[in-house]
Amino acid sequence: MKITVMTADEQIITLDVDSHESVENVKALLEVETSVPLQQQQLLFNGSEVRNSDKLSAIGVKDDDLLMMVSAAAASSVSTDDLRVNADGSAANPGAFQQRIRHDSDLMGRLYQNDPELAQAILGNDLNRLQEILRLRHRQRDQFQRQKEEELALLYADPFDVEAQKKIEAAIRQKGIDENWEAALEHNPEAFARVVMLYVDMEVNGVPLKAFVDSGAQSTIISKSCAERLGLLRLLDQRYKGIAHGVGQSEILGRIHVAPIKIGNVFYPCSFLVLDSPNMEFLFGLDMLRKHQCIIDLKENVLRVGGGEVSVPFLQEKDIPSRFLDEEKYAKEASSSGGPVTSGTANPSQGQASGGASGDRSKDAGFEAKVAKLVELGFGRDAVVQALQLFNGNEEQAAGFLFGG
């Protein structure tokens, strides 16, 4: 089998040896290659020093494995002054510090077990990275020491001291939080990763774009700039101006009543509100999701349209434009423009959007009468209720919408 040995000066040596060869014979081969006497060699495997009498197979060395060789003579040549550390925990002489630790097989073995990140930095070539980790470890030790001192002070605090009791209560609460956090790391680590929102590739009026699929948004939305780029702004009906309420609010510039969207290889009619919202280009909302019988299949990670006649995959993070993922920029834009619209539709007669009054309207006898009248025309109740809510109870506009859909 072949094994690779890396020396302290980062020389790479490949040896062809038998799996039952002894470590001592391997050192003899290395003496020929490096001119370092066998007695001054220390071989490390997985961070632990191996004995001369050990067989390679017995210590788990397999084909293409890596061993480290350090020289005891080189280690002893480093002066104690070169191992001093600065006040911030960094090494005064990082190069000498690195060499000294490399040549201490016992210490390297403990580092591999207890702090593999620091061990890798010591074996690497980036001294700046090594210094960063040393400073970080120093800060962590300081913080741990302060916590211990605070806990000790609380232990001997006056039990009738109100402030001390508050600190004890806070410490107990924080301990519970830390335990909960540790449990989450073990059993639910994916909760700490960023959740990527659902985007699919679509074509709107023949132009490809990334559509944000949001079942929590009542209406399908397009920004003014995107509508202009797609050549649809000429169809803007400004009678549907208003204010869309959701998380914050945005100005509704009007409505585009119908335009073709292509999902997969199939074209579907789509209508959408046009918003003055720079942080969202195109949002495929609940109205069109329901109209086209869409299914958000998170198991297969696809959007099924038309009850399953078309399936398109949700985009991976690398395929989503970075401007859509820039959360800091999004937050700033949202605060300046009134926030992303998650629900709300325009009322052309009042110029005001409403996304939370449907419950009150449903209780109104007049609203139910309008529902019954439109249901008699052959439309489903759910579609009728949605259309009336879309136009804030305007029966004629709801009927026009239903006949047009």
TrEMBL record:
PROSITE patterns: UBA, UBIQUITIN_2. It comes from the Eukaryota. InterPro entries: Ddi1/2_HDD, DDI1_N, Peptidase_aspartic_DDI1-type, Peptidase_aspartic_dom_sf, UBA, UBA-like_sf, Ubiquitin-like_dom, Ubiquitin-like_domsf. One of its GO terms (molecular function) is aspartic-type endopeptidase activity. CDD domains: RP_DDI (cd05479), UBA_scDdi1_like (cd14309), Ubl_Ddi1_like (cd01796). Residues 1-70 form the Ubiquitin-like domain. It is found in: Cytoplasm. Residues 334-362 are annotated as: Disordered. The keyword Transmembrane helix does not apply. Residues 334-348 have a biased composition (Polar residues). Belongs to the DDI1 family. This is DNA damage-inducible protein 1. It comes from Lupinus angustifolius.
